[in-house]
Amino acid sequence: MKNHRSPGDDGLVIEGIKAGGEIILKSVSELFNKCLHEGTIPKDWNNAVRVLLQKKGDNTKLENYRPISLLTYMYKLFTEILTKRLTPLLDMAQMTGRICIPYGTFASICIP
Predict the structure, then answer these.
(1) CA distance 7 to 110
(2) Residue 14: which residues within 8 A CB-CB, separation 6 or more?
(3) The pTM is what?
(4) CB distance 64 to 55 below 8 Å
(5) Which ranges constitute the DSSP H helices of 3-72?
(6) What is the pLDDT along the chain (112 residues), one digit of tens a residue?
(7) Do residues 5 and 77 make contact, with C-beta atoms less than 8 angstroms apart?
(8) Which end of the chain has fewer CB atoms < 10 Å from its terminal CB, N or C?
(9) Residues paired with 70 in a beta bridge
(10) According to the model, what pLDDT value does residue 38 have?
(11) Separation CA 29–CA 6 (nearest Å)
């Protein structure tokens, strides 16, 4: 993930996770594995901060703004890992004509 991006409502930035070293990475890994095994994520990961970014033009006109949602980095990191691990399985399922993922797949994608 890129550095120098806006944090979500928890205030955590990716630089903090990266700087935490092995201790933080182990804790994050354990949390993600727990999420995978239980099939849930922490409720605060569902919160987003919505802000308006000004586009070009008159800053007094609402049409010159666009909304964005700032999500927590823990949620972004978790979904990025899930995407990277599920994409090959989905690609393989498409090639074989299967449209579902076999039972027990989440246990096989847990973070070591």
Answers:
(1) 26
(2) 1, 2, 3, 5, 73, 77
(3) 0.68
(4) yes
(5) 14-19, 21-38
(6) 777 777 777 888 888 888 888 888 899 999 999 999 999 999 989 888 899 999 999 999 999 999 999 998 899 999 999 988 888 877 776 666 555 555 555 544 544 4
(7) no
(8) C
(9) 49
(10) 93
(11) 23
Nearest CA among 16, 46, 47, 42 for reference residue 31: 42
CB 32 within 8 A of CB 107: no
Is 14:8 a contact under the CB 8 Å cutoff?
A: no
Rg of the chain, C-alpha, whole Å: 18
| H or E segment to which residue 105 belongs | helix 105-108
Question: Do the Cβ atoms of 12 and 73 come closer than 8 Å?
Answer: yes
